[in-house]
Amino acid sequence: VVPAAGRGDRLGLGVAKAFVPLAGEPLVLHAVRGVLASSCVDAVVVAAPPDDLDRAAALLSGLGDRISVVPGGATRTESVRRGLVHALGMRPAADVVLVHDAARAFAPPAVFAAVVAAVRGGAPAAVPVLPVVDTIKRVDAADRIMSTVDRSVLRSVQTPQGFRVDVLCRAHAAQPGPETTDDAGLVEALGEQVHTVPGDPMAFKITTTLDLAVAEVLLSREHAG
Ligand code: CTP
Ligand code: MG
To answer: Would you tell me the crossing angle of helices 27-37 and 53-60 to the nearest 10 degrees?
Structure first.
């Protein structure tokens, strides 16, 4: 399930992030190609901006018939839920499901493989993580520093996140709070253990124009061989 229905407000380009061009092709196309390149999935459901569904479907039609496009929702969680419902309709016997941000278009195949291996190995859920590199401070409402957080016990979480299908379905059926920003958070709320696997800097999320510039450099290097 590829949530790709976000507005890309932090990019500030006035274009849904899925359609922002990277080396001349829309981000969502790069992202879905990356999912297919992992050789880990047999069907892909993209939750696309509802107003531009046909455009997204047309863009992805060249990648084969294992890909479908559904309208995303107002929040990432709602987009994933819609994609999950469709995915289960397509693959009722599936036992593992991955959720992967379209905005993490460069996530390497090895990360997909590690996440799937963890779930196949018995984890109800698994997420790629990286250490936090910045010093982290807790502040009050006036932005005054209250304390320094021990970053050795903190991790940045990426996607793809992997789940036993029954676990992710239960997690999405329980009404989440508005502050839940990833699917693993929903699973944690069930009291299930979420396992971690090593993430990769290449699985970074394109969020700001700096990330977009990095993405362009990565693609130009790829093309230069
Ligand atoms: N997403 C989604 N549906 C939403 C919101 C987000 O499918 N209603 C997806 C985005 O398309 C993205 C992923 O969730 O692939 C992570 O979200 P984020 O990086 O926040 O993307 P945007 O919401 O598009 O960006 P912004 O928050 O800056 O508007
Ligand atoms: Mg967002």
So the answer is: 50
CA dist 98 and 119 (Å) reads: 10
What's the one-letter identity of residue 149? Answer: V
pLDDT tens digit sequence for 42-83: 999 999 999 999 999 999 999 999 999 999 999 999 999 999
Kindly compute the dihedral angle of the four CA atoms of residues 33, 34, 40, 41, in this order, to the nearest 10 degrees: -40
User: Nearest to residue 17, comparing CAs of 61, 62, 51, 48?
Assistant: 48
Cα of 146 to ligand 1 centre, how many Å? 31
The CA distance from 103 to 107, in Å, is 10
Residue 102 Cβ contacting ligand 1 at under 6 Å: yes
Q: Is the pTM of this model over 0.85?
A: yes
